[in-house]
Amino acid sequence: MGKLAAVGRSILRFTNESMRIVMVTIIGVLFGFFIGISFPSVSITKLHFPSSFVSYIEDRNSGLTTQALLNHAWTSARNARENSSEPSSSTTFKIYVPTNPKGAERLAPGIVVPESDFHLRRLWGEPSEDLPFKPKYLVTFTVGYAQKENINKAVKKFSDNFAILLFHYDDRVSEWDEFEWSKRAIHISARKQTKWWYAKRFLHPDIVAAYEYIFIWDEDLGVEHFNAEEYIKLVKKYRLDISQPGLEPDRGLTWQMTKRRGDREVHKVTEERPGWCSDPHLPPCAAFVEIMAPVFSRDAWRCVWHMIQNDLVHGWGLDFALRKCVEPAHEKIGVVDSQWIVHQVVPSLGNQGLVFFDDDKKDDEGEVKKKGGDDKGEVLERKVEDFFRSLKKGPGQGEAKAKKKEAEPPQVKPEEWPQPYLASRTTELPPRWNGPTGTVVLIDKPKGWTSFTVCGKLRRLVNVQKVGHAGTLDPMATGLLIVCVGKATKVVDRYQAMVKGYSGVFRLGEATSTWDADSPVIQREPWEHIKDEHIRKAAASFMGEIWQVPPMFSAIKVGGEKMYDKARRGESVELSPRRISIYSFDIERSLEDRQNLIFRVTCSKGTYIRSLCADLGKALGSCAHLTALRRDSIGDYSVNDAWSFSELEEQITKGYL
Predict the structure, then answer these.
(1) Which CATH code is given to the segment(s) 499-634?
(2) How far apart are CA 232 and CA 255, in angstroms?
(3) CA-to-CA distance for 137 and 124, rounded, in angstroms?
(4) Beta 637-638 vs 467-469: how paired, if at all?
(5) Superfamily grouping for domain 131-349
(6) CA-CA distance, 298 to 206, in Å (whole number)?
(7) pLDDT greater than 70 at residue 231
(8) In Å, what is the CA distance from 605 to each residue of 175, 326, 499?
């Protein structure tokens, strides 16, 4: 009996425990059900299955992971349920993977390929056999066919480790096939565009991610002393993310930072002209390279690419902003001195014009003919100014002005305009300054006045609104200034194009930031070794038609702003050389001070005497700056016939009007 009682108690205890488990299970299921319907949007993408389980049920034929297939199944089931309960809903199939690149969130991670390269692929065969050798670095040149020989020499300096990419601004691509390496290079063509236009559109960081370093070079670089493999070794040794080869100091040098140092492999800092660097670790004393031949690491280029503006086609100012992409910039940016280049300063793209201006015309023989004759530089500047002015017009202003112009009577062409009245010391003052043809007055500009100052004073003196000069004189210069008054301003170009004569003084062995005496001396070089015969030979080498780079401190306008304003702010602007003519250039030593050279020069329009002085100093193996300048003549007009402004003012106030 005792055993039966014990068995009964055991059965009762088992029944109670079973009921408890059943009740807990039912309650748990109900609780889970209510939780499930309370959060219907929970995605299974947030669930991560064990790797062993995922690999076990992998779909070998689909190429998709089981995780992605489960996501698909869950989403499809959920959409079906929602569509059946809410026929009006418009949910779409979606696999959301937040780590995918923008636009690829719906794709499974295994099929996303965010990066590419410039490796050439075969049309047939195994893809794995397409590239027996993958280049590690990328070199780009923006080229025109006229520089083919120079580019050929440059490309030969790069081994098979470098992929070659040519951007063609003249649309001549097939001609390059004469070079064997060109058949393996990548060619991209767009007429009349610059390298930074190409870089923004074709060098996206995800496209060049396969390359450790990216070279973005001009076409006019001499590479006789450059070895690309050695350059890469030095860049890695000194951990430079942004760099450039050193520049030969005798050719095309603008900044001291990029000047080659013969006693070291790499330099990262320099001493610049007084007042140019607010901090020794800031550009242009450090953290600075020029835009003609920069080299970027893969990571640095990813930042720099995003900094390039879509309309920054010339790259002006970019060199001063590169430091924002590396840290610390004064350690990560440098110049490689032992592998150096020469900037040949060959004008190229400047002759191609701008894409938004008039197309080139062809003559009867099919040759391309540029508008504006020989004055391409000035015509281009004038067109750029017109372009910037057009951006400021309100809606409809251009059309209204065009209609008004159509209603006006036809204008007389400048070359057909009758000769204005000439006011000089050998002629009487005009009865009317604003007569039918206007007045041209010869003025001897005093030192310290700008050409604009002379025009402003004369405008108030004769009470005529339209007054303009026919050729700028620097404030430190004196001499003949032709001023057109009233309707004579229509023919100001006639006087600007005339041959000009100057005289003045160069000082050897000393250089200034403005290339004249208006700023302190910042550089001294030996000059005692220079003989008179050396000076005569150097002067003779400048005779004829030459190319000249204007000084940074000049009145040339870029983007609607004068160059000297940009230079004072420390902005870098890459100026193109201009074609000028030197008809005579006579120099002799000063008897009082043999360091001074007295000169007389006759030259074409657009010649900068300060640049001529600086170039002469370099040709003599020294340096020089301009200490005095006087304009003696313009065409047949002489400064001897010009009024001093004080005399002119006195005559006018006496009642000669």
Answers:
(1) 3.30.2350.10
(2) 23
(3) 26
(4) unpaired
(5) Spore Coat Polysaccharide Biosynthesis Protein SpsA; Chain A (3.90.550.10)
(6) 10
(7) yes
(8) 37, 45, 6
Kindly give the pairing relationship between strand 213-217 and strand 242-247: unpaired
Alpha carbons 73 and 336: distance in angstroms, whole number: 59
Average pLDDT over residues 405-428: 68
Q: Respond yes or no on whether the N-terminal peptide bond of residue 284 is cis (omega within 30° of 0).
A: yes
As annotated, the residues of the chain forming the CATH 3.30.2350.10 domain(s) are 415-496+645-657, 499-634
pLDDT at 113 over 80: yes
Tally Cβ neighbours within 10 Å of residue 605.
Answer: 20
Q: Which pair of structure tokens corresponds to residue 106?
A: 């719906």
Which part of the chain is CATH 3.90.550.10?
Answer: 131-349
Give the three-state DSSP class for 488: helix
Neighbours of 94 (CB within 10 A): 12
Q: Tell me the pairing of strands 521-524 and 510-512.
A: antiparallel
Q: CATH topology for 415-496+645-657?
A: Pseudouridine synthase (3.30.2350)
DSSP string of 101-128, one letter each residue: PTT-TTS-GGG-----------SSS-GG
Task: Please list the active-site residues.
Answer: 474
Containing H/E element for 647? helix 645-651
* Dihedral sign from CA coordinates of 518, 522, 528, 533: negative
C-alpha span between 541 and 537 (Å, rounded): 6
Residue type present at position 387: F
- The number of beta carbons lying within 10 Å of the beta carbon of residue 134 is 12
**Residue pLDDT, tens place only, 364-406:** 444 444 444 444 444 444 444 454 444 444 444 455 555 555 5
Cβ–Cβ under 8 Å, residues 178 and 340: no
Amino acid letter, residue 558: V
Q: Could you tell me which of 477, 478, 471 has the C-alpha nearest to residue 493?
A: 471
Tokens, residue 538: 């150097």
* Strand, helix or coil for residue 616: helix
Tens digit of pLDDT for each residue in 301-328? 999 999 998 877 777 778 888 999 999 9
Candidates 98, 122, 118, 119; CA nearest to 109 is: 98
